[in-house]
Amino acid sequence: MSSKAKRALQLFLSFFKIGAFTFGGGYAMIPLIQREVAENKKWITDDDILEIVAIAESTPGPIAINTATFVGYRTAGFFGAACATLGVVLPSFIIILFVSYLLREFANYRAVRYAFMGIKAAVLALILKALWSMYKKCPKGIVSYIVMAAAFLLVAFLHIPVVYIIIGCAIFGIVTFLLIERRAKHDLS
Amino acid sequence: MIYLELFLTFLKIGALTFGGGYAMLPLIAEDVAAHGWMELSELIDFIAVSESTPGPFAINAATYVGAHTAGVFGSVCATAGVVLPSFTIILIVAKFIEAFRESKLVKGAMMGLKPAVIGLISAAVISIGKTVFFPHGVIAEVFSDPVFYVSLAIFAMAVVFSFVKPLKKLSPIIVILIAAGLGIGAGYALNL
User: Fold this and answer.
1) Is B129 near chain A, with CB under 8 Å?
2) What three-state secondary structure class fits B54?
3) Which of B179, B55, B13, B61 is nearest to A117 (CA)?
4) Residues A9 and A93 in one domain
5) Whether residues A8 and A95 fall in one domain
6) Total domains in the fold of chain A
């Protein structure tokens, strides 16, 4: 086996392990990736990890996929990226296929219905918790609060499709950023 | 064709969610409802499953919605769809990393997108809250239904477990298991 193919296989196995053992996805995966890929295998450095997280945050899609693709590419090119991504996806995919079968099979049992009645209420709290930690990480300021409120009101009460809100807020952010920068330059001169 | 529709819908979801995790929830909830693939109530059940199984929420959700709608091949299509935009974009970014790092467009777009995601998830929380507490709409009968009070009590328990130290350090799986146990206990005790 060529060294590149070997490297790709190792990437697949490492990311398969990472995908199989992280609960909570995304950020929960970062310490595991750091240990496996930077500390153990030394394919990339700790600085690379920080850079990858920053990039994953400002590109669309799940952080786990972004990170796997990036590490794979850095380590073994396109084929490495494909292997790492497939590795991180596969455990979820297999487990959820199995669970979806179980859910369908047992959904009508009385105890299962009761269990999900309780679980539904708890999920609401778990989403609030995730929302709170995202809010704490989000940069604050008048522009942020306006965008938050506008996105919330437009979707919750006017039922504007989410796609338009995302595109609109990205454009609004770009325009505001350029205006602020231009003013800063103006003030300097 | 259902397979193509799943692929394209999840391609759009993958291309438009920034921030990972529950950032994807508002779009998934909207699209799944618009296509009539699943009830919001079923999606909420699935969120609990996703919290208790390994892997990113996006992949779990795509696989589940795909399997629920069109079997194994459906889940392959939905998962491929949700992965492909990330994969492609990261490959491009990795090639032009310097330009990406300095890009004013990227910095500006993130300035709008980060707070937008908070607003969008808050809106999803409202519709999920309605589904949990008022499954048949906001009507007076809700307040004579024991299910409402059981849900409220379990929600209060889960809030305490999610926000109060040191309980909030516990894994969400434990909170889900306790909620399931309380649900089963209350269900049989009150014969709901």
Assistant:
1) yes
2) strand
3) B179
4) yes
5) yes
6) 3
Tell me: do A84 and A176 sit in the same domain.
Answer: no
Residues A90 and A180 placed together within one structural domain of the fold = no
pLDDT of residue B142: 84
Residues in chain A: 189
Same domain, A144 and A122: no
Of residues A29, A60, A134, nearest to B15 (C-beta) = A60
The pLDDT-based confidence of A37 (bands split at 50, 70, 90) is confident
Question: Residues B120, A155: contact at Cβ < 8 Å?
Answer: yes
Contact B113 A114 (CB under 8 A): no
- Bridge partners, residue B54, by sequence: A23
Residues of B in contact with A149 (CB under 8 A): 119
Read off the pLDDT of residues B11-45 as tens digits, 9 standing for 90 and up.
999 999 887 678 888 999 999 999 999 988 889 98
Mutate one of B40, B77, B86 to test the A interface: name it (highest A CB count within 10 A).
B86
Per-residue pLDDT of A57-106, as tens digits, reads 888 888 889 999 999 998 899 999 999 999 999 999 999 999 999 988 88
Residue A113: domain span? 109-137
Cα B102 from chain centroid (whole Å): 32
Q: Are residues B89 and A166, on separate chains, in Cβ contact within 8 Å? A: no
Q: Which residues contact A45 (CB under 8 A, 6 or more apart)?
A: A38
Shared domain check, A146 and A132 = no
Angle between helices A110-137 and B146-163 (to 10 degrees): 40
As a whole number, mean pLDDT of residues A15-27 equals 80
* Model ipTM value: 0.88
A73 vs B contacts (CB less than 8 Å): 90-91, 94
State whether A96 and A158 are in the same domain.
no
Task: Give pTM, 2 decimals.
Answer: 0.87
Q: Which one of B118, B163, B168, B178 makes the best mutation probe of the A interface by having the most chain A beta carbons within 10 Å?
A: B118
Same domain, A36 and A87: yes
Rank A53-57, B8-12, B42-46, B106-110 by mean pLDDT and report only the highest.
Answer: B8-12
- CB A154, CB A161: distance < 8 Å: no
Q: Could you tell me how many CB contacts below 8 A there are between chain A and chain B?
A: 393
